[in-house]
Amino acid sequence: MTDIRLRPVAEADLAMFRRFATEPGLVGLDWAGYRDPHAAGRQFSLDGYLGADYGRLMVEAEPDGVAAGFVSYVAGTYSGPIGYWEIGIALLPQWRGRGLGWRAQAMLCDHLFAHTPVQRIQAGTHPENIAEQKSLEKAGFTLDGIIRATEFRNGRWHDGYLYSRLRTDPAPPL
């Protein structure tokens, strides 16, 4: 099993972000068409991807320090002053299926629970993405339900699955 760590985004990582914005299929089912490849540099210049309501951390494979992908988080709110985090992950194809994804998502949850007061972290995935469903469950998430017509992709609307992990849920062993 490859050891991993999460770390802040570095300028050298922007090339990976540009690839995700311009290479169809690199993010699998999440491909939503071409995006501005320079947006990554602008965001990095603004806050280094460590904003108050949004962030990215790199998933780095040890011991070589190779960037395998990234995890992201964005703030949301249902009611009240303390909202939730919605997380996501994008791994380069050669790093998928090696157990990095579930551990990176579990590590991100531990980080967010340790440093922010949220009670809930949630993540969405596609019904056909069985690997990500298993990854989320291994990372301590529970399926909340189906979100109907939540994503427009390939010319039509698709349902999604919504998972959550609460601060009071047991953390998975890493």
What does this structure look like?
- The structure is a single chain.
- This protein is of the alpha+beta class and about 170 residues long.
- It has a domain at about 5-120: Aminopeptidase.
- About 25% of the residues lie in helices and about 35% in strands.
- The chain is built from 4 helices and 7 strands, in the order βααβββαβαββ.
- It has helices at about 15-20, 40-45, 100-115, 130-140; strands spanning about 5-10, 55-60, 65-75, 85-90, 120-125, 140-155, 155-165.
- A 7-stranded mixed sheet has the order 1-2-3-4-5-7-6, covered by helices on one side.
- The longest helix is centred in the middle third of the chain and has 16 residues, at about 100-115.
- The chain is globular and about 35 Å long.
- The protein starts with a strand and ends in an 8-residue tail after the last strand.
Summarize the structure.
The chain has 174 residues and is α+β, with helices and mostly antiparallel strands.
Structural class: alpha+beta
H/E series, N to C?
Answer: EHHEEEHEHEE
CATH architecture descriptor of the domain at 4-120: 3-Layer(aba) Sandwich
Helix content: 10-25%
Strand content range: 35-45%
Please name the defining characteristics of this protein:
7 strands, globular, 4 helices, Aminopeptidase, 174 residues, alpha+beta
Could you give the topology of this structure?
Layout: E1 4-8, H1 14-22, H2 39-47, E2 54-61, E3 66-76, E4 84-91, H3 100-115, E5 120-125, H4 130-138, E6 142-153, E7 156-166
Parallel strand pairs: 4-5
Antiparallel strand pairs: 1-2, 2-3, 3-4, 5-7, 6-7
